[in-house]
Amino acid sequence: MHRTVLELLRNNAEHAAEFQSRFDGVQDSQHPDAVTVCCSDSRVLQDHIWGNDEPGRLFTCGNIGNRVVQRTDSGEAVSGDVLYPIEHAGTDTVVVVGHTGCGAVTATYEDLTEGSSEPAGIDHCLDLLRPHIGAGLESLPPDVDGAEAVNRLVEYNVDRQVEFLVESDEVPPGVDVVGVVYDFQDVYPGRRGEVHVINVGGETGVEELRNEHPGIESRIDRLWEY
Questions:
Q1: Can you give the pTM of this predicted structure?
Q2: CATH number of 30-219
């Protein structure tokens, strides 16, 4: 067996020894406090970025581009991954987590600006992002380079995913929806690995958000107010 799998199994044995008693209260049901929609990038440690080691606390969804949209025969709908804990586990908070240097946003940006080719499965995922990111291209400042454009479009994509949730009839009005960006590339002020709040329930203005949420004003920031 490949050494990587052997190493994973050894690490899992340590995990099982540490966690065996932590499942006592969640073996038969779950009631997570939040559902997080993260990019599946290997650098985004979905539970660790929140310091979470409690089974049942977070319902984590991962896909390239932190998408909340899926296509059905009747059109676009909220992804079942996101909707499941809301419908069946009483979860009332959704956090959409983008990240700096997102590969899916980069690939979508390059496809829209230069044209590119991807395998069918990847292209399907990018096709779900194109309409939500494409509209942002026209608003980009003319003097930004490729990396700066991508990081602004990361925010734009998070905004569009939040918007889709807020406007969907499938998501009950009492569910809080928050959009954030995880930074490990020194793009935002602060430390590597910090999460920056950019959108709360559709509000994206930094000043407005800081006034509404003074307890976290230092964590509210944006690269781009378009």
A1: 0.96
A2: 3.40.1050.10
Annotated binding-site residue? 38: no
125 among annotated binding-site residues = no
Instruction: Count CB atoms within 10 A of the CB of residue 167.
Output: 9
Q: Residue 207: is its pLDDT beyond 90?
A: yes
Query: What are the residue boundaries of the structural domains of the chain, listed by start?
Result: 30-219
Was 2 annotated as part of a binding site? no
